[in-house]
Amino acid sequence: MLYFNNVNLDPLTETYGLSFYTQYLAHWPEYFQVAESPSGEIMGYIMGKAEGHGENWHGHVTALTVSPDYRRLGVAATLMNILEDVSEKKKAYFVDLFVRVSNKVAINMYKNLGYIVYRTVLEYYSGDPDEDAYDMRKACSRDVNKKSVIPLSHPVRPEDVD
């Protein structure tokens, strides 16, 4: 677990238990990528999965983190591009992710990568107080009419997220 905790220096990145990481690695290895510097330092990682049915079949970003020493160098964009390419190969309609509404830096980065705020999920993140999340999406080429990125006009609760 030390391996990933060292990269999660950002308090906004969720940290999971070892069994969670190994489950993802076993089920969706192509969605788990680590960026390593030439000297062998971990620069960041992304983990995700493919899920859903029909026109809701999509790639999902579960976690993306970049070590502070390697931020603003395009590492996150490179990792996101890899995950998007995997989702394209799996014939996904879109890629989605959840981000804290307070995480303006990440929200702006995702917008610059072509993501839109699809909906607000009320009290998605536990805390004191709980915090809302944006469900952000980017259409893949399979979604020719871009139906997956038409924003919802009302917020939803976590139990209503499909």
TrEMBL record:
Catalytic activity: N-terminal L-methionyl-L-glutamyl-[protein] + acetyl-CoA = N-terminal N(alpha)-acetyl-L-methionyl-L-glutamyl-[protein] + CoA + H(+); N-terminal L-methionyl-L-aspartyl-[protein] + acetyl-CoA = N-terminal N(alpha)-acetyl-L-methionyl-L-aspartyl-[protein] + CoA + H(+); N-terminal L-methionyl-L-glutaminyl-[protein] + acetyl-CoA = N-terminal N(alpha)-acetyl-L-methionyl-L-glutaminyl-[protein] + CoA + H(+); N-terminal L-methionyl-L-asparaginyl-[protein] + acetyl-CoA = N-terminal N(alpha)-acetyl-L-methionyl-L-asparaginyl-[protein] + CoA + H(+)
Keyword Cytoplasm: yes
Predominant subcellular localization, coarse grouping: cytoplasm
Keywords: Acyltransferase, Cytoplasm, Nucleus, Transferase
Record PROSITE patterns: GNAT
EC number: 2.3.1.254
Localization in the cell: Cytoplasm; Nucleus
The N-acetyltransferase domain, residue ranges: 1-141
One GO cellular component term: NatB complex
Keyword Cytoplasm in annotation: yes
InterPro entries: GNAT_dom, NatB_acetyltransferase_subunit
GO molecular function: protein N-terminal-methionine acetyltransferase activity
Uppermost EC category: transferase
Family of the protein in this entry: Belongs to the acetyltransferase family. ARD1 subfamily.
Quaternary assembly: Component of the N-terminal acetyltransferase B (NatB) complex which is composed of NAA20 and NAA25.
Known role: Catalytic subunit of the NatB complex which catalyzes acetylation of the N-terminal methionine residues of peptides beginning with Met-Asp, Met-Glu, Met-Asn and Met-Gln. Proteins with cell cycle functions are overrepresented in the pool of NatB substrates. Required for maintaining the structure and function of actomyosin fibers and for proper cellular migration.
The name this protein goes by in its record: N-alpha-acetyltransferase 20
Annotated organism of origin: Parnassius apollo
